[in-house]
Design brief:
Blueprint: H1 2-23, H2 29-86, H3 93-102, E1 104-116, H4 118-123, E2 130-143, H5 144-149, E3 171-177, E4 180-188, H6 189-192, H7 198-205, E5 217-221
Antiparallel strand pairs: 1-2, 3-4, 4-5
Helix pairs in contact: 1-2
């Protein structure tokens, strides 16, 4: 809207210049022309800077979102491993970091076996009847830290947003939805982009697009549905 208004003003100014050239006395024309062309140059520059600022903003936004998304994926992967061991998610980063540091997740194998069904055998007068049992064997354990983070210690700071507002941390929630464990980690876009123009941040908060991050936050997981993915398009990361 701002750009459109500036363009209209420029066109109007050019029209005024033409009218002046046609109807204003010759003695007054040079000064009026100078003033009007100064206005045109100023508005043209303003238009260029407005477009250029949006281009810079969009580039910076994508760079920052990618960094934040990488951290949200680390949180998500750590939470999923935590749930494999504890049967639920945690809303405490200290607990999550301690788990990554020391936790081991079992590698399990399911197998079915036939066993004698004593009750049914007795009911059928001694005719042997069998039933299937599923047995889960623990084969070994793997280190959460090594599996998810390799040789990196970035898990120690995964609670930090890392860009935008200094010292900002992710909001981490966990609980149950109809007795099913759920979690959510999120951060407001305004936090990630806090040093940018407010009107650009507000415009970004209104995004509804298949190739953008919809809404006012970057989020992984959900407290309202059983969902462990993020609200960003695939183009923002190669980790999924």
């Amino acid at each position: 809207m701002i750009i459109l208004a500036i363009v209209l003003i420029i066109l109007l100014t050019i029209a005024i210049v033409w009218l002046i050239d046609k109807f204003v006395p010759k003695k007054m024309k040079p000064l009026i022309h100078l003033v009007l062309w100064a206005i045109i140059i100023f508005l043209s520059y303003s238009t260029f800077m407005s477009v250029y600022q949006e281009i810079k903003f969009n580039k910076l936004k994508v760079e920052r979102y990618k960094k934040v998304i990488d951290r949200l994926i680390d949180i998500r992967d750590s939470e999923l491993a935590y749930k494999d061991v504890h049967g639920k998610y945690t809303d405490n980063f200290d607990s999550l970091i301690s788990f990554v540091e020391n936790g081991k997740v079992p590698i399990k194998q399911r197998r079915d076996t036939l066993v004698l069904d004593v009750e049914r055998t007795a009911a059928f007068g001694g005719v042997e009847t069998f039933k299937t049992l599923t047995i889960i064997d623990t084969l070994s354990f793997y280190s959460v830290k090594d599996s998810i983070f390799g040789g990196s210690d970035r898990y120690k700071t995964m609670m930090n947003v890392g860009v935008g507002k200094e010292g900002a941390k992710f909001v981490l929630k966990a609980g149950e939805l109809e007795e099913i464990p759920v979690f959510e980690a999120s951060v407001e876009k305004a936090v990630i982009l806090n040093d940018q123009e407010k009107y650009l941040i507000e415009k970004e908060n209104q995004v509804v697009s298949v190739d953008g991050v919809n809404g006012s936050r970057l989020t992984v997981g959900s407290m309202e549905e059983v969902f462990t993915k993020g609200n960003w398009p695939k183009t923002y990361t190669t980790k999924e």
